[in-house]
Design brief:
This protein is an alpha/beta fold. The protein has one domain: Rossmann fold (3-Layer(aba) Sandwich), CATH 3.40.50. Helices cover 54% and strands 15% of the residues. The protein is built from 5 helices and 4 strands. α3 runs parallel beside α4. The longest helix is centred in the first third of the chain and has 17 residues.
């Protein structure tokens, strides 16, 4: 399975959620098994008032990341400054999980 990391907290969380959701839908239609913590966590945070910051979700996200074969980083605006994405890259590197950097357009072109 692929773990899809993408920036979330901060500016335009709803747009970032929608972009992550679109990437997952595209990949799933192509038969690629993908998990996005944003797609999973955003609706829970919004509906039930859970925290949106990465420190709340870190342990949960790490569990899934360490269960995946690859980390794909969705290069949405701000991905290089995202504390959560940087943590996920660092965790994948430590666990020797392959990392791929991808755009929405590249998801479509796979």
């Amino acid at each position: 399975m692929i773990y899809l990391a993408s920036p979330y907290a901060g500016e335009d969380e709803e747009k970032r959620f929608e972009d992550a959701q679109l990437a997952c839908a595209i990949l799933l239609k192509k038969g690629i098994k993908v998990f996005s913590p944003i797609v999973y966590g955003h609706p829970l945070a919004v509906k039930f008032g859970l925290p949106k910051d990465c420190s709340f979700w870190r342990g949960f996200n790490d569990f899934f990341l360490l269960s995946c074969e690859e980390l794909w980083v969705l290069k949405l605006e701000g991905w290089q400054k995202s504390e959560g994405v940087m943590h996920e890259i660092h965790t994948a590197n430590r666990a020797e999980i392959d990392i791929r950097y991808i755009t929405l357009k590249e998801c479509v072109e796979l």
